[in-house]
Amino acid sequence: MSTTCGAALSTEMKSSDIHIIAALGRDDSPRDRQNSISRSARISVLASLDWRSDDVTHIDNQFLDNLNVWRDYFPPELEAQLDGRGVNDSIRHQYSAGEALPGFTASQVHVVKQQQFNRNFSRQVRLEPRLGRFYPRGIFENIPGNYRSNQLPCRIIALDDATITADFNHPLAARTLDVELRVMDIWAGGQEHGGRCNDIIEILTGNGPGMQARHGRIATDFWSDDPFARSDTSADEAFYSTPRLVHHLDSNCALQIGELYRQLLPHDGRILDLMSSWVSHLPAEFTAANITGLGMNREELEQNPLLSDSLVHNLNLNPALPFADESFDGIICTASIEYLISPMAVFSELARILKAGAPLVISFSNRWFPPKAIQAWGNAHEFERIGLVLEYFIENGAFDQLHSYSLRGLPRPPDDKYAGELLLSDPVYAVWGYKRK
Hints:
- Helices cover 16% and strands 25% of the residues.
- It contains nine helices and 15 strands.
- The chain has helices at residues 6-10, 76-82, 200-205, 236-239, 251-264, 298-302, 343-353, 375-378, 382-396, and strands at residues 41-53, 56-68, 90-95, 109-113, 134-136, 153-159, 163-167, 177-188, 270-276, 290-295, 309-312, 330-334, 359-364, 399-408, 428-435.
- Helix 7 (343-353) crosses helix 9 (382-396).
């Protein structure tokens, strides 16, 4: 096995160790570039949030473009470090719980009657209260100061036949947060009057971060409500019989996933590309690796130039894998985990065929084939999907050094087919761990 094995790199993985390689360079727009930050400058930054829950390290990244140093709100402890910084410089600060965000308060925990949970809140699906799951606060009725239009998340932390306990605190309210800003671009700006003022911490911590972690050590209830049902119950062989030689992720998203793999996997080991297709999203460094592709369409696999060998195999019919124990130095699964109807059986097999200390990396975005995705996936918030995959790792028990990762806010490539409709690139989400030694 190569000495470049990612296990040694990521034991103490920080956001600064996961470098973004695409779409963050200086673009072709007519910007008056500067060498250092001044009060009149505009900047682009990669904002990173590192935090921990029980047994898991979380890295949440947000690319923030066109920030106005004079107008936008940087916390004082970060703003004081900005002046004079150049491209690729980083500033950071660690916040104790309750510093960057409002701290946990018992007054934000509400014990309500079961009938105060509006099961008809969604027009698409009837909702039931489930332990550890997040819901819009507006789903709870007759709580003083709360309204149906309130879309901020709250979490059910206890329930019985009569009552529900809902935590309205921010999902990160009780966490220590390491915040880093890496300067990606600087150009002349000037003062502005009017317009929206961006709150850097609010953007970085909003709409998801914190929702991927368990409540304490209590398993999140993803298992009720027939989670592995699918709307299309026809044979998978029929659905995948026609090759789809198209990209399912935009090029910026795909490149970031490739960079993640570059840092976490051995470059010359034996790697299994699980649920593979005509692309593996591995960068050029892996030309020395022995890569086995396991997928559903023979033509797609034959079109993949990185594969050393391939196998057509339906994991939903037969989770057993035709490989010897401890035969792989790393396993990846890209944009496919949402289609497994027996994930725990598959994870048991992945643990069996991985060498001790070898990584299993699961990556995905917010695009998939709805007819074949499991019900639990479509019914979950994007960050709860990270939590679902973490549950696969935790429940399996064969993995440690667990990490979750998110990257949002990259610009959509101008040549992408959705460039005229969507401003931002597909987000990157990933979960990885290492087989216990």
